[in-house]
Write a structure and sequence with these properties.
This protein has 331 residues and is an alpha/beta fold. Helices cover 36% and strands 17% of the residues. The strands form four sheets. An eight-stranded parallel β-barrel has the order 1-2-3-8-9-12-13-14, surrounded by six helices.
């Protein structure tokens, strides 16, 4: 890596009607690579039409999608940067409007609360996945991972956080299953571990990262139940499977109120590659690197608002804060 900066995944919604990556997206990512970002993790890429939940987001499950992403990965590599594809299944954070008319799926049959901002309707009522259906979801993640490598990505990040499908299995507040994928800590982690194991078999641990968000902001600070017990089981199990890359996200939250506390616990039992951050100052980011908490620092909103973020960091220039107007533009 040319530095320790990571562009964090940020949903943008600029894919075309076939959910292919576009020239707009290519320009957006290339400008960040050209201006010094070492590692780009893409916006969430949907692994199958039934996994969708957003307007105009990219997919990666057919040859047309592969070709559209090749244009981007080739440009990123010309600037000596790396790029990972973040692979995504929304689970119950969706609606039949986005899944081809079928019900979203989840660990539960209870709908998420609130209004879906993508269609201004209540979230759809999900269908609880049958045990025998889970391997099909695993296959979707693995198939999309292989396609990402075919598209020239340096690796993939499986999105296991932010309340999406895999987090719906982790989270005891949501997972109300009575089979071997619900109830105990071991059972709630089982599905994620199944996916990691199969993905490592197919693409190798050097190309696989997962993202988790045990503590994040969702209207208020939101933590997993049994947080310590979950981490003490999940992290060593990931290590045993051969996973070597982990991203701990706090979404749109204060790092020190959320993921820093989790990272402090994880670092004691995880000696491998670890990233996180979320809009830290240069001074605090440097501190997290020096104290051994993190190996690279993720930034999201700052990189969106400042194409020249790396040069501003180096030169001590003023870094623009994200505004609502900026959120709706492509830089």
């Amino acid at each position: 890596m040319k530095n320790r900066s990571v562009m964090s995944p940020m949903t943008r919604g600029f894919a075309d009607k076939n959910h292919c990556a576009t020239n707009q997206m290519s320009n957006y990512y290339e400008r960040r690579a050209k201006n010094g970002i070492a590692l780009i993790i893409t916006e969430g890429i949907i692994i199958h039409p039934s996994a969708d939940g957003y307007n105009n987001v990219p997919h990666l499950y057919n040859d047309r999608h592969i070709q559209s992403w090749k244009n981007i990965t080739e440009k990123i590599h010309k600037h000596d940067s790396k790029i990972y594809a973040q692979l995504w299944h929304c689970g119950r954070i969706s609606h039949s409007d986005f899944t081809g008319g079928i019900s979203p799926v989840s660990s539960t049959d209870k709908a998420a609360s609130g209004t879906n901002r993508q269609n201004n309707k209540p979230y759809g009522v999900p269908r609880a996945l049958l045990k025998e259906e889970l391997p099909k979801i695993t296959d979707m993640f693995v198939s999309s991972s292989l396609k990402a490598i075919d598209a020239g990505f340096d690796g993939v990040q499986l999105h296991f956080g932010h309340g999406y499908l895999i987090d719906q299995f982790f989270d005891a507040k949501i997972n109300d299953r009575t089979d071997e994928y619900g109830g105990t800590v071991e059972n709630r982690c089982r599905f994620a571990l199944d996916i990691v194991e199969k993905a490592i078999e197919k693409i190798g641990s050097d190309k696989l990262m997962i993202r988790i968000s045990p503590s994040r902001f969702m209207g208020k600070i939101y933590n997993w139940d049994n947080l310590d017990e979950m981490l003490k089981y999940l992290i060593p199990e990931l290590d045993k499977l051969g996973l070597r890359q982990l991203d701990v996200s706090c979404a749109n939250a204060d790092y020190y109120e959320t993921s820093e506390l989790v990272i402090d616990k994880i670092r004691k039992i995880w000696p491998h590659f670890l990233i996180g951050g979320a809009s830290l100052t240069k001074e605090n980011a440097t501190k997290e690197i020096k104290n051994g908490h993190l190996d690279m620092i993720t930034w999201g909103r700052y990189i969106l608002a400042n194409v020249d973020f790396i040069s501003k960091l180096k030169n001590g220039d003023t870094i623009l804060e994200m505004t609502n107007d900026m959120r709706n533009k492509l830089f």
